[in-house]
Amino acid sequence: MNASLPDVPEVRVVGLPLLTSGFDLVERLDLAMHLKVHGPLEPIAGEHLAALAEQISLRGRGGAGFPFAKKLRAVAESAIRRGVRPVVVVNGSEDEPACRKDTVLINRAPHLVLDGALLAAEALGARTLVVGVTRDSTEASMQSALAERGLGNRRGSNLRARVQRNPVRMVTGESSALVRSADGGPPLPPGRKVHTSDSGVGGAPTLLSNAETFAQLAVAARIGADRYRRTGLRDEPGTVLLTLSGAVARPMVLEVPTGVPLRYVLQLAGAPPLPQGVLTGGYHGKWLDAVTAHDAVVSRAALEGCGGALGAGAILPIGPGTCPLGEALHVANWLAAESAGQCGPCYLGLPAAARGLADVLDGGGPTALEALREVTRAVKRRGACKHPDGSAAFIESSIAAFTDDLAAHVLGDGCGRPVEGVLPLQDDSPQGEAPSGRRLAVDWTLCQGHGLCADIVPELIQLGPDGFPSVAEAAVPRYSEARAQRAVRRCPALALRIEEDPGAAPPPPTSLPMLPRGRGRRALGSGRQ
C-alpha cells in the first residue's frame, strides 16, 4: 500500500529516442559508450548557446518551466556586471515519490547530463560545477562519471566539480535549499526570495536547472535546432520524460514526443481503460477527470489549457475501485510531514489542511468542507518556499475534480469504496537515508544552549522551548555525517560528540553497473589531454 518506486524503473520510448539513446544496449553509458552512442561535442559560445535554447523553446524540466535562455543570459549579465565567475548547478534531487526521470538519467546516462552542464559552464566561464543528488545510486553514478572525465574538486583545476549529497525530502529539491546546502548550510529553503542568477552558491551568480534540462541542451547541441524541432509540437519541440505510476500495471519512465495523446501514454503503462482520474504534474500538480484526460495531449501548454499540469512529468491514474479523496488524503498527510518547519503556512497550515480533508471524509459535512477551503486559501502565497502553495493546490484540485465523491462524503455516508493506496509514497527508511552506524550525542553537563548545533544539523537536532536541544542523541544518516562532525567542532561548550551506534546495522554496499573502460574520443570538459 503506497509502496515507493524503484530508483530505476522500466524505461520505454515512443518514436526515436533522444535522451534514452543507447538504453537498449547497456544499463549505464560510461564515457566510452556515451561517445559511441552520442558522438563528440564541441563548445558553443555563450550567445550562440542562448540562441540555441531559444530556437528549441527549452524550458526548465523540473516543474517551473522557466525559459532556459533567459536564465542563461541573466546569469551572464550578472557575472559581467559584478566581475565574478558564475557557478553551474545541476539539480538531480528529485525527491518527489512519483518522479524518477532525473534519477534514471543520472543512473543510466550521467554523461549526457554532464555534457549540458559543461556546455553552460564553458559558455559562462564558470569554474565551479555542483551536482545535487539525494540517493545512493545517483551519487555513485555521478561520482563515477566525474572520475571518468578526470574531473574533481581539486584546487587549481580549471573546473572544480563535486557532488552535493542531501537527504531525500521534498523540500531539498527546491533551488534555494540546494544552494544553501552547497554552501555548507542545512538543506532547507532559507525563507527569503533571492534569484540564484544574482546570488547563488558562494554568493556568485548561479545557473541552476534540473538534470533533464541539461540533457536536452546536450542533445540539441549535437543534432542542431532544425533537426531537434522535427520532433514534437511546433511551439514545444522535442521529447519529454514522463514517470508513469499509480494504478498502472508497469510503472515506468517514458520518453515521448510532445503532442502524443495522454490516453496512449496511459495505455502503454497498463492503466485502467476508464480511469477515475489522472493526476498530472505529481503531488504539486492537478487532477484531470476521465473525459478530460482522454482528450488531452502531452505538452505543457495543452495540459495547462485543460486544467492539468506537466510539472516534473509525473502522471498517475487511479482506477474506479478506490476512493479518490482517500488517496488524496494519504498524499496530503505525507506533504504535511515533509514541511521544512520554517514558516507558519507550511508548519501549521499543511497539517491543518490534511486534518480538514480527513474531517470532510469522516462526515464533517458542509462546515468541514468550508473550513478546509479557508485553510487552503490561507496557506497559499505566504510560505517561505513553493511547498505550501503546491500542496494546497493539490488539495484544492482533489476536491474540485471528484465532485460526485465529494458530495457523497459531504452530504451522505461516503462513496463506499476502500482506499487502495495506489499512489506511491516514500518508504519510512528510503534509499539514500541509510544509517552511518553513528549517533550524535549531547552531554547535558556541558551544554549551555548556544543553539549552533540546531543551525548546522536541523534534521538531527531541534531546540525545545527552553532553547536547549530537545533530544539527547540522534542517529546520523550518511548524508549528515559531514554536518554532524562540523557541529561537534563548532560547539562552544564542547557538549557534542559522535559515537558508534551499537544497534545500527552496516549499510549494504552500493553496486553500480559498469562497462569495461575503453578508449573513446574526448568529450567536452573531459579533463583528458
Automatic annotation (TrEMBL):
GO MF terms here are: 4 iron, 4 sulfur cluster binding; metal ion binding; NADH dehydrogenase activity
Asked if the keyword Cell membrane belongs to this entry, the reply reads no
Q: Which InterPro entries match?
A: ComplexI_51kDa_subunit, Nuo51_FMN-bd, Nuo51_FMN-bd_sf, Nuop51_4Fe4S-bd, Nuop51_4Fe4S-bd_sf
Co-factor requirement: FMN; [4Fe-4S] cluster
Query: SMART domains in the record, alphabetically?
Result: NADH_4Fe-4S
* Pfam families in alphabetical order: Complex1_51K, Fer4_15, NADH_4Fe-4S
Superkingdom of this protein's organism: Bacteria
Going by the UniProt record, its keywords in alphabetical order are: 4Fe-4S, Flavoprotein, FMN, Iron, Iron-sulfur, Metal-binding
Gene Ontology biological-process entries: cellular respiration
Where the record annotates domain NADH-ubiquinone oxidoreductase 51kDa subunit iron-sulphur binding, the positions are 325-369
Task: Give the Low complexity compositional bias ranges.
Answer: 512-529
Show the segment(s) annotated as Disordered. 178-203, 499-529
What family name appears in the similarity comment?
A: Belongs to the complex I 51 kDa subunit family.
- The protein, known as: Putative NADH-quinone oxidoreductase subunit F 2
- The species this protein was found in: Streptomyces aurantiacus JA 4570
> From which lineage does this chain's organism come?
Bacteria, Bacillati, Actinomycetota, Actinomycetes, Kitasatosporales
